[in-house]
Amino acid sequence: MPQISVDYSERLADSFDRRGFGLALNRLAVKLIDATPEACKVRFRRVEEPVVVGADSDTYALVFVEFQIFPGRTPAAKAALSDAVLAALPEYLASEDGHLPVQAAVNIVDIDRDCYRGATLAV
User: Fold this and answer.
1) Taking the mean position of all CA atoms in its chain, how far away is CA 17?
2) Which CATH number is associated with domain 3-110?
3) Bridge-partner residues for 16, per DSSP?
4) Burial of 91 (0-12, 13-18, 19+ CB in 10 A)
5) String of DSSP letters for 51-115
6) pLDDT in tens for each of the 123 residues of the chain?
7) Looking only at Cα atoms, what is the longest distance across the chain?
8) 38/12 Cα distance (integer angstroms)
9) What keywords tag this UniProt record (predicted)?
10) pTM listed for this prediction
């Protein structure tokens, strides 16, 4: 744990260093919420265009990061993680013209420890 999902706009596909950002997310989880490195799992999901922000479907791109974690972290630790993720994100984004606004958000959700199950399968 944590399970980390990153939804991102299709228009960022060629300019988003997903591997680098995924590794950064893992490091931040270890540092800020005491996760173990091998427990951090990141998946990226490309969101088809258009992404509509307000009344605009052409101007913006989107990155939404969600952490699903076991309960027990303080609100301050969760807020610090959210802030650190938003601060790190620009390092892994590049636009061709340098003027693509990216709407970015982070959400941290506690999951039910009693119901969650995970395993490493040998297939």
Assistant:
1) 12
2) 3.30.429.10
3) 93
4) exposed
5) P-BTTBSSS-EEEEEEEEE-S---HHHHHHHHHHHHHHGGGGB--SSS---EEEEEEEEE--TTT
6) 899 999 999 999 999 999 999 999 999 999 999 999 999 999 999 998 888 888 876 788 999 999 999 999 999 999 999 999 999 999 999 866 667 889 999 999 999 999 999 888 999
7) 48
8) 27
9) Isomerase
10) 0.91
Q: 65 is written with which tokens? A: 């990061």
Nearest Cα neighbor of 73 from 38, 110, 36, 105 is 110
If residue 22 lies in a helix (H) or strand (E), which one and from where to where? helix 18-33
Whole-number CA gyration radius for the chain: 15
Is residue 5 within a helix (H) or strand (E), and if so which, with residue range? strand 3-9
